[in-house]
């Protein structure tokens, strides 16, 4: 079990279990967004295009069981601090920082999938001249979009001020950039940055 420093349970635990069962149920439907992005980033690195890595989650291990001599099972751990975004790195001298999220919802993307500390972090990145965005996947359709952080802030602020609790798929289509799934690289978000954001 993983807990935050304040002792509260990690809310995503249930979601992680669900994702694992979804992988089994939809084993032939393709990789997860994270796997696709990791493969894409490896391609970028190998071809000298960009250096982008997944950020490690800072965890403090508290209890470990040793059922076998050669095996260790972590039974209790805590997040040292709230993580910011999933990926960061550099492309053509520009700092890149982004979050990746997916949903099975067909018509909208829940704002609750983002956290206040993530929004705050993305605002700070932009204030320092970095490039920040989110990559969103509608897994039912396998549609993937890049949405600039400044656009995400508009939807976040709308929600905070009592508006919609989600971003409609139409809003994402209108304000974002569709990324077609390819072979190498799998999710070519760098081409979107080159043609639309730089």
The arrangement of helices and strands along the chain is EHHEEEEEEHEEHEHEH
Distance between the termini: 42 Å
Could you tell me the number of beta strands? 11
Strand content: 25-35%
Alpha-beta content class: alpha+beta
Low-confidence stretches: 12-30
Word description of this protein:
This protein has 198 residues and is α+β, with helices and mostly antiparallel strands. It has one domain: Trna Endonuclease, Chain: A, domain 1, CATH 3.40.1350.10. Helix content is 34%, strand content 32%. The protein is built from six helices and eleven strands. The chain has a six-stranded mixed β-sheet, sandwiched between helices. A three-stranded mixed β-sheet has the order 1-4-3, with no helix packed on it. α3 crosses α4. The longest helix has 14 residues. The N and C termini lie far apart (42 Å). The relative contact order is 0.14. About 10% of the residues have low confidence.
Quick summary of this structure?
The chain is an alpha+beta fold and 198 residues long. The chain is built from six helices and eleven strands.
What are the SSEs and their pairings?
Elements (H helix, E strand, L loop, with lengths): L1 E2 L8 H14 L7 H14 L4 E4 L4 E10 L2 E9 L7 E5 L2 E10 L4 E3 L5 H12 L3 E8 L4 E6 H12 L5 E3 H7 L1 E3 L9 H9 L1
Parallel strand pairs: 1-4, 6-8
Antiparallel strand pairs: 2-5, 3-4, 5-6, 7-10, 8-9, 9-11
């Amino acid at each position: 079990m993983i807990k935050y420093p304040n002792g509260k349970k990690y809310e995503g635990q249930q979601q992680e279990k669900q994702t694992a069962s979804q992988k089994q149920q939809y084993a032939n439907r393709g990789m997860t967004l994270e796997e696709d992005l990791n493969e894409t980033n490896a391609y970028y690195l190998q071809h000298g295009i960009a250096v982008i890595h997944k950020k490690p989650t800072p965890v403090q291990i508290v209890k470990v069981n040793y059922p076998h001599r050669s095996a260790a099972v972590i039974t209790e751990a805590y997040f040292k601090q709230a993580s910011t975004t999933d990926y960061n790195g550099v492309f053509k001298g520009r700092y890149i920082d982004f979050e990746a999220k997916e949903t099975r919802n067909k018509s909208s993307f829940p704002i609750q999938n983002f956290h206040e500390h993530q929004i705050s972090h993305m605002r700070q990145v932009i204030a320092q001249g970095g490039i920040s965005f989110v990559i969103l996947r509608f897994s039912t359709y396998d549609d993937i979009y890049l949405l600039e952080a400044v656009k995400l802030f508009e939807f976040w602020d709308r929600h905070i001020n009592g508006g919609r609790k989600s971003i409609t798929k139409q809003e994402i289509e209108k304000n974002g950039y569709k990324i077609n799934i390819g072979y190498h690289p799998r999710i070519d978000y760098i081409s979107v940055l080159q043609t639309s954001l730089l």
